[in-house]
Amino acid sequence: MRLVKVIGAALVLLSTSAAAQGPDPASFTPDKIKAGSDVYAIYCTPCHGPQMEYPGGSFDLRTFPPGQFARFEASVTKGKNNMPPWGEVLQPGELEALWAYVMAGEKKR
After folding, report:
1. pLDDT-based confidence at 100, cuts 50/70/90?
2. Helical H runs in the chain?
3. Rounded distance, CA 101 to CA 94, Å?
4. CA angle, corner 32, sides to 56 and 71, nearest 5?
5. Can you list the domains of the chain with their CATH numbers?
């Protein structure tokens, strides 16, 4: 019985870790990135600049670390510092599309 509990706990930890990393970058199709770009243009451009051209004063999204989807999700949906919460504004799928854009979008190289 103890072994079953240990294995169950390990599976929960593994699935939690994978969920925290967010959507698989392999799912970042051009259409999903474009959808994220559209969401970004509506909600994010005023503070984060067009095409993530960091205007100063707000977080530079070009530097957002991959593998930290849970942090991104919390910041976007609940707000952080001067950023308002967008959780009740975003439609299903828009957060993941926005993540795809931030991770794979028009970053300066």
Report:
1. very high
2. 2-21, 30-43, 45-48, 69-78, 94-104
3. 10
4. 50
5. 2-104 (1.10.760.10)
